[in-house]
Design brief:
By secondary structure, the protein is α/β, with parallel strands linked by helices. 43% of the residues lie in helices and 16% in strands. The chain is built from 13 helices and 10 strands. The strands form 2 sheets. A 6-stranded mixed sheet has the order 1-2-10-7-8-9, with helices on both faces. The chain has a 4-stranded parallel sheet with strand order 5-4-3-6, sandwiched between helices. Helix 3 links the parallel strand 3 and strand 4. The longest helix is centred in the last third of the chain and has 15 residues. The protein is globular, with a radius of gyration of 18 Å.
Length: 309
């Protein structure tokens, strides 16, 4: 079965390489048809569900996972319901409806949205598509590393962001399949959405009381258990940046590369722009430009005005 995602470019960044003092490569998953990497794993999960007889797909998402599910459902010819937290912007709702999804809002926190969506899927005999905690999703995201390896690049370090941990699990799965068992990963979160860093520090899963970051697509109050387990079998370094650093990186990246990304993606880019200590001395750094559909120039302008300096 042909995947729903596309193979994305692997580009060397002149601006970021000059800042870093070494070679910085960008895996440009912002150029996926849904605007983010999510279509890799979510697309695989949706294809599996439909092949097994699912006649409706249900997602609990305030952003990119819902967008990927809606896109997959349209491509596969099955209806999709996306349940979002009540805090989700009208802009994101418009994007979801444009893909043909039915959009419902329930719960201020994703946990409440998730429970409602699971119950809805059961009542409507649909298939619930988890945004990050699913081995099928991880396997889909692992294709990122297969593409990089096939292009002949083996970096000295990889920079990614962590929300629920699905991307991290997929990247590490793909890295180990390629034999990159000792390549360090810098796992970046924004302050206020740093459930992964908290879990690694504590040695067990930690549930944040709430998300205090504009990077809402990093807003899982508890990461997947598998993401934490990987920290014990691979060199993964959590790293926390501010919302302002993430937004500033989005602006700089748009100027440097003519591509607009969410603050959730900008968080990872900011680690390079700000010359994060764990990356210093690395000759070749790979940054996963995960993208994000829920952003506009107007939103970036507003965040820049409103965030504390």
């Amino acid at each position: 079965m042909k995947p729903l995602h596309v193979e994305t470019p692997l580009l060397e960044s002149g601006p970021l390489s000059r800042i870093h003092g070494g070679s910085v490569w960008l895996k440009m998953d912002a150029l996926q048809p849904t605007g983010s990497f999510k279509i890799r794993g979510i697309g695989a999960a949706c294809q599996r569900a439909v092949a097994e007889g699912a006649e409706r797909l249900v997602s609990a998402s305030g952003g990119n996972a819902g967008q990927a599910t809606a896109y997959a459902g349209r491509r596969l010819g099955v209806p999709v319901t996306v349940v979002t937290p009540t805090t989700t912007s009208a802009y994101v709702h418009e994007l979801l409806r444009a893909e043909g999804a039915t959009v419902l809002a329930h719960g201020e926190a994703w946990d409440q949205t998730d429970l409602f969506a699971r119950d809805l899927a059961e009542r409507e005999r649909g298939r619930y598509i988890h945004p990050f905690d699913d081995p099928v999703v991880w396997g889909g995201h692992a294709s990122l590393m297969r593409e990089v390896a096939d292009d002949g690049l083996q970096p000295d370090a990889i920079v990614t962001v962590v929300g629920g941990g699905g991307l991290l699990c997929g990247l590490l799965q793909g890295m180990h399949a390629a034999g990159w068992t000792d390549v360090p990963v810098l796992a970046v979160e924004t302050q206020g959405a740093n459930s992964y860093a908290a879990a690694v520090e504590a040695g067990h899963l930690v549930t944040l009381d709430r998300i205090r970051s504009i990077a809402v697509t990093l807003g899982a109050r508890t990461v997947a258990a598998e993401a934490l387990a990987w920290a014990s079998r691979h060199p993964v370094r959590p790293w926390i940046v501010s919302d302002r650093e993430a937004v500033t990186a989005c602006r700089r990246f748009a100027d440097d590369h003519r591509v607009l990304v969410e603050p959730s993606c900008g968080a990872g880019l900011s680690a390079v722009y700000e010359r994060a200590e764990p990356l210093r001395g690395k000759k070749c750094v790979l940054v996963i430009v995960c993208g994000g559909a829920g952003v506009s120039l107007e939103m970036l302008d507003r965040w820049e005005r409103e965030l504390p300096r």
